[in-house]
Amino acid sequence: MKESLMDILCDPLDKSDLELKVTERDGDEIITGRLVGTVTGEEYPIEDGIPNLLPPDMRDAE
Amino acid sequence: MTGRDLAERRGMETNVYQPAEDSALLAEAVVDHARGRFLEVGTGSGWVAEQAARKADVDCVVASDVNPHACESARKRGEKLRAEGHLGIEAVRANLVNPFRDGSFDTVAFNPPYLPTDPDNEWDDWMEHALSGGESGRKFLNPFVDEVGRILTDGGRVLLLVSSLTGFDEVTERVESRGFDYETVVQESYPFETLSVLQLTK
Q1: Which pTM value belongs to this model?
Q2: How many CB atoms lie within 10 A of CB B77?
Q3: B99: which chain A residues are within 8 Å (Cβ-Cβ)?
Q4: Domain spanning B1-199: which superfamily?
């Protein structure tokens, strides 16, 4: 994902802000990392450039 | 006709919904009406999002899906587009419009899974998820219509594919109850159904 995507993403649980933690970057593209809910503390993984912003109950169902 | 029959009739692979008549109709509406910051919900292969990325008056394309294989497919398509000098596609795994901020998009397009499905006949894989709209055919359409207004900019619009199998009147009632005006921007009849794309505005 592009870092600019942060402007339009929010925590699916309560629409609060997310904090971006980058593990691996390729130019302005974030390949691996996490998005962390600033209010909920919930962690959403970024893998292969795709943020997984499913709410935890849908993510855990797999 | 069950969703599985339809999948077989269309000769589809089983992980990601591939473009079909409904996709073509939504793409036509996107080419005519999408602008600004664009989101496709339930993007599947990302083909409709690609049509938006090729438009001069669209300046950002985001594609979401609950299915990880669909997200991968849309992302790969975006990389190819970017290499050709077009806009890319940003793939986000999401439940409908859940993780998007208020007032983020000028255009939101959605071709919901809409085949009414008997719960006893549901099969449990990604393709069922891409086709089945639950017993009413409106299992995903209703919550989408309820929430999508939140993520639109002032003057933003929604392009929503509706099949006669989903119940056209039930959909337009829901749309009006959420404060939208609607117009049919493209419509096509097929042996099993009539497909329409509604443009919703506030």
Answers
A1: 0.91
A2: 21
A3: 9-12, 53
A4: Vaccinia Virus protein VP39 (3.40.50.150)
